[in-house]
Amino acid sequence: MPQRLVIVGGDAGGMTAATNARRARTAEELEIVAFERSEWPSFSACSEPYFVSGEIEEFDALLVRTPEEFARQGIEVRVQHEVTAIDTAARVVTVRDLPGAREFTVGYDFLVYATGAEARRVAIEGRDLQGVHEMHVLRDALAVRAILDASPAPRRGVVVGGGYVGLEMAEALHTRGLHTTIVSSGGGLLGGALDPEMSTHLADLVRALGIDVRVGQRVECIDGREGHVTSVGCGEHTIPADLVILATGTTPRVELARATGLRIGASGGVWVDDHLRTSVPGVYAAGDCAEVIDRITGAAANIHLATIATKQGRIAGINIGGGDEAFPGALGTAITKVHDLEISRTGVTEAAAIAAGIDVAVTTFDATTTAGNWPAATSMRVRALADRATRRMIGAQIIGGPTAGKRIDALAMAMWNEMTVDAMVNVDLSYAPPFSGTWDPVLVAARKLQAVLGGSG
Amino acid sequence: MPQRLVIVGGDAGGMTAATNARRARTAEELEIVAFERSEWPSFSACSEPYFVSGEIEEFDALLVRTPEEFARQGIEVRVQHEVTAIDTAARVVTVRDLPGAREFTVGYDFLVYATGAEARRVAIEGRDLQGVHEMHVLRDALAVRAILDASPAPRRGVVVGGGYVGLEMAEALHTRGLHTTIVSSGGGLLGGALDPEMSTHLADLVRALGIDVRVGQRVECIDGREGHVTSVGCGEHTIPADLVILATGTTPRVELARATGLRIGASGGVWVDDHLRTSVPGVYAAGDCAEVIDRITGAAANIHLATIATKQGRIAGINIGGGDEAFPGALGTAITKVHDLEISRTGVTEAAAIAAGIDVAVTTFDATTTAGNWPAATSMRVRALADRATRRMIGAQIIGGPTAGKRIDALAMAMWNEMTVDAMVNVDLSYAPPFSGTWDPVLVAARKLQAVLGGSG
């Protein structure tokens, strides 16, 4: 009789675990069944803003893999099924068939807890008015796209929250022709990901693109008439709005984990060891609901990125399949864009470094995306951080024109290998005038930090 | 009395040595004088094709730094001055003032031999006809640009040689509206830099851009009438031409080094140790004339790239200035483009790996430059190589649409750190749909090699 793997939550973390376990074990050895609350497993949440903007035209393009495709791999996916309880002693889950409104139980040998993250429910009066939307599940993207496609289309959009989703949704509404305002409680945009001076610089550049950016403002109420939103904010800072997007961050979805008795880490996510095992035998966790070790500080963190969810899922699946692979932690490398402006980051911010007790050296400089003499050169600003004690690069942030952003990968690769800035200076990177200066900005970052640190290592 | 540093050849290697020595030593401590045969020191040879194409409009944009700018740093640059002899016993160089047609001698304490590379003089009948040009010094770029700007402009251009310069010059002529043919003696294009199947693929893609590509043809003669070129090739493969560019490769310029008694390495370049010291005390070498250690094979090689020349020059200058820095070798990371098609490479080719006795594993796959669901996705082909014994990635080649090429830097950074493909798989690189799939092609390359190697490390 085969063993059974139950996946709780059928998105990036869970389904990647499923496919990797399947690669290692036949259907005769291991039955795999995934329960997903929504209508769709394995969807690209990161693509939602681009579906709203219309740049990704078809809804199907958001679906990474269908239940039928998983079935052909010998993975059973039950959508609109929610796991409501996990009995870790008996190794049995209780599942609710949402449309059928009935419950049943399923035994498991292995379980992957992969419930993802949920929108942070910031207390905002009027958040349930018509025309006010969160952006989290595919249904949200469908709803907002339908509003934008309807006639009359909304003319004024307000996005509450200056994080990745907020920024991407502001771009989407602006692309759709709405007068768009983004309201950030921080001093700039992407304040969690960038140091203050980069965050402020980004706000200035986004403003220059024609998007209204309000910083340092916390939205506490949304006004409406006849049940439909009319404006955001109360008192003096009121902004008229026909459509409001709430993008005030995400938090690990751990309610069931808590009820089940899985250990919750200090970060608020499900605690896992480097093999993605939770505190309970047979139960693994992967994705946004699980903690991840920050490679720079060594501390557990919540980093909600599809890249990390997928990598964790892969390793959980390999280990469930009988393998022995450790997840080496993350840097929080991320990239996004607003029209032609690219933003990327990796490693720790200055504030995070200081909080971790690191004596940090910092440089900020302007470079060009190509050689300076190339006509299409656009400017890019780079901020890079090093640990004075080890002379290692520990963080980097980039804001610039086309091709600026993906340079973060070379920096992340260097940081992953714990390179000193002195060693980085000599790395043989590519150059031709349409692509960079002789010293790519990646190397310039190392040289500038060398100058700040003094000496040559 | 100050010591004196004499720079023989005032381009990337030499002038970078000069500025780095100057940073470490005041003018009171060290006099620096550079002798440059041509009219311009420190020019961007890599930009020449783009000046010819007109994309870089102004000639001044090719000049990195003028003699006046160097003078302000306390570095004397004497252009149109050629060092004709080096007496290493007396530490005296003989210099010829080319316009003045007189010779004089200058003593030195340190010398940097940085004469660069020269065009390989392939035996081709008719190579001195009017309308036949090499592309090496700035004067060549000026001459070809003048021909293209003149009326009537040439209509048919033929480029002999399928290397970087050949490819870039073919693009330039094509951009200027010429019916352009590129003739390569190899089976494809960039045959020295790419494995045969990538080289052939590139030839196909360049053809699809409207450039006539002839492979496997060696040009032995060029025909002309009234002293001006009329066609390339003799016998059956004749190609009509109004303008011919010879780009048949470069070779280290070592004649003076040989006469001086500097040891010449097996690669044909000036032998240097890891501090860029030649075999003769007080004499350093940097740039295209000097050997460089290939980090993958450990063998000395000729790699003629501005990036390497600059890095070698920097280290020679630091060491002359009293520092102690070693040059860690190179990977031969390079990038170029033909219109929207980007080509990049790093590390060893399969042939080079085999020649070095490496048991090599190879993968070639097609990916997209963005997420697959992104409308602007263009295809990119990646080829990656690993050492079966160590499971390390040792080479990579990329051909694809916009943004494909610079990914080579992340691969080079991984190879620089001698990462196994197993370790690479988990590296935290950036992702968003406009930039890549959840697994960037860099990581996919590692995963594909893992599959070829078997096991998980």
Short description:
The first copy, chain A, is of the alpha/beta class and 457 residues long. Chain A is built from 12 helices and 25 strands. The mean pLDDT of chain A is 96.
Structural account:
Two copies of one chain form a homodimer. Chain A is of the alpha/beta class and 457 residues long. The first copy, chain A, has three domains: 186 residues, FAD/NAD(P)-binding domain (3-Layer(bba) Sandwich), CATH 3.50.50.60; 128 residues, FAD/NAD(P)-binding domain, CATH 3.50.50; 114 residues, FAD/NAD(P)-binding domain. Helix content of chain A is 25%, strand content 27%. In chain A, the strands form seven sheets. Chain A has a five-stranded parallel sheet. The first copy, chain A, has a five-stranded parallel sheet with strand order 9-16-10-11-12. In chain A, strand 11, helix 6 and strand 12 form a beta-alpha-beta unit. In chain A, helix 1 runs parallel beside helix 8. The longest helix of chain A is centred in the last third of the chain and has 15 residues. The termini of chain A are far apart. The interface between A and B is large, with 68 and 67 residues.
Task: Estimate percent helicity of chain A.
Answer: 25-40%
Tell me the distance between the termini of chain A: 61 Å
CATH class of the largest domain in chain A: Alpha Beta
DSSP helical segment count of chain A:
12
Strand content of chain A: 25-35%
How many domains make up the 3D coordinates of chain A? 3
Oligomer: homodimer
Q: What kind of sheet is the major sheet of chain A?
A: 5 strands, parallel
CA-based gyration radius of chain A: 23 Å
For this structure, the CATH topology of the largest domain in chain A is FAD/NAD(P)-binding domain
Strand order of the largest sheet of chain A: 3-2-1-7-18
The biggest chain-chain interface is: A-B, 68 and 67 residues
Let me know the average pLDDT of chain A.
Answer: 96
SS-based class of chain A: alpha/beta
CATH superfamily of the largest domain in chain A: FAD/NAD(P)-binding domain
Low-confidence stretches of chain A: none
Total strands of chain A: the figure is 25
Q: Identify the overall geometry of chain A.
A: globular
